[in-house]
Task: inverse folding
């Protein structure tokens, strides 16, 4: 699909290398359900035949965004509860809090991956 | 690896449901405050991160960029406006792609912006037809 020298680039939430199976499960429970993987995004791109695979850790920015998102939702809590209902509001907050705990526990990372075909 | 507990709803159903509901004005306000843009997205890409992505792509008006898991098309539209490239927004939820198409039309981009309902595991593009492929927090 990609032309020769074409780029694949994007942002991905993933687990770090070296987690135990229990830690991987915890990461899946805290983060996006598709976060569990056998290989790192860099290794996956390399095994798929991409070269010049580079990764930049943007987890700090991700954590800041999660903090701001949780805080912003609280500042609009009454409106959000009225619009979406209590259950949906609390689910959204719990989902973001889970991701935040995952990052702070070292179980979740977010990276900017660039790979060339 | 699946989440602990009862069998989860599959990702495709989750996102089909999510994109069937447009973002509220409050949600858009929150998105603007947190990420610097109000595009009705569900990922975590900030405006600065979108700029960093646009900078590495090195594409122009003769290039075609494919956005995998494009959702409502914010990132593809941003890259297209920044670079002048053609974009193809690919995803499965049709409600997302309908909104994506509406946004491209509103920005007068229909001549160089396309939507495709496709699973990223089986994309309907010819060999070597894409200059760059982008993605952002797919399945997040």
Result:
């Amino acid at each position: 699909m990609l032309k020769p020298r074409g780029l694949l680039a994007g942002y991905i939430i993933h687990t770090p290398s070296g987690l135990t199976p229990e830690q991987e499960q915890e990461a899946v429970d805290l983060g996006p359900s598709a976060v569990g993987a056998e290989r790192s995004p860099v290794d996956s791109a390399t095994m798929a035949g991409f070269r010049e695979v580079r990764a930049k850790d943007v987890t700090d920015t991700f954590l800041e965004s999660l903090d701001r998102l949780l805080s912003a939702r609280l500042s609009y809590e009454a409106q959000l509860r009225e619009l979406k209902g209590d259950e949906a509001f609390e689910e959204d907050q719990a989902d973001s809090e889970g991701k935040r705990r995952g990052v702070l526990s070292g179980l979740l990372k977010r990276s900017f991956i660039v790979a060339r075909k | 690896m699946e989440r602990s507990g009862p069998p989860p709803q599959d990702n495709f159903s989750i996102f089909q449901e999510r994109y069937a509901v447009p973002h509220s004005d409050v949600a858009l306000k929150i998105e603007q405050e947190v990420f610097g843009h109000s595009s009705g997205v569900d990922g975590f890409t900030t405006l600065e991160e979108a700029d960093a992505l646009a900078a590495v792509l090195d594409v122009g008006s003769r290039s075609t960029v494919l956005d995998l898991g494009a959702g409502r098309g914010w990132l593809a539209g941003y890259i297209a406006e920044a670079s002048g490239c053609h974009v193809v927004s690919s995803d499965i939820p049709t409600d997302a792609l309908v909104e994506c198409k509406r946004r491209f039309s509103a920005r007068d981009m229909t001549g160089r912006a396309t939507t495709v309902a496709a699973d990223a595991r089986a994309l309907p593009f010819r060999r070597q037809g894409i200059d760059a492929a982008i993605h952002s927090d797919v399945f997040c």
Chain A has one domain: 7-116. The mean pLDDT of chain A is 93. The helical segments of chain A are 21-30, 41-47, 59-75, 77-84, 86-104.
